[in-house]
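Thread: quick sanity check before group meeting

JM: Hey all, I'm pulling together slides for Thursday and realized we never actually wrote out the predicted structure for the chain we discussed last week. Dropping the sequence here so it's in one place. If anyone has concerns about the input, flag it before I start.
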Amino acid sequence: MSDRSNFWLSLGGAACLAVGVSACGTTGTTGSGGGSSTGARISDVPATFLATDHPRLAGWLEQRFEVNYRNMRPDIVFDQDPLSDIRYQAFNLPENAPLFHLKEESISRRELLHKIAKFWNLDMSLVYEGGSPTHVKVAGR
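JM (edit): ok, ran it. Output follows.
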C-alpha cells in the first residue's frame, strides 16, 4: 500500500500524521505566480474550498508550513512537500501552462491548494468512500 493510501487510512484510525517539512510561525513573505502574503493569517480561501467535518483532515489542511516553489508545473506540484502526503486524482490538467512560483514563510495546505487552483483554474474537491476521505479530485476547467 502506498504512503498516500496509508495517510488516508490514518485519518480514520489512531495514527498521527508526521510531516517532514518545516512548520512555521505567522510572518509572511511575497509570493510570485501565486500571489503574495501580507503576513496576516486572514485567508482569502472560501469556507467551502475543501471543506470537511473530518477533524484530522481539517487539522492537516490547516497546518502551516514554509514553502518555496519554483518552476512548478501542474503535473508535478502535488508531489511536493507539504502536499505529497495524500493522493490526488487529476483530470484534464492544463498543458503548456505557466510555471507556478511561490515563496511563503507561513501558509496552510488549504491556502496553498487554493492558490494552485486559482493560478491554473482548477476545481478541487474531497472524495469520500464509506464516510472516510480517500483522495482529492483535481480537474482542469
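AS: nice. Residues 3-14+21-140 form a domain with the Phage tail protein beta-alpha-beta fold fold (CATH 3.55.50.60). The CA atoms of residues 90 and 138 lie 5 Å apart.
JM: adding both to the slides.
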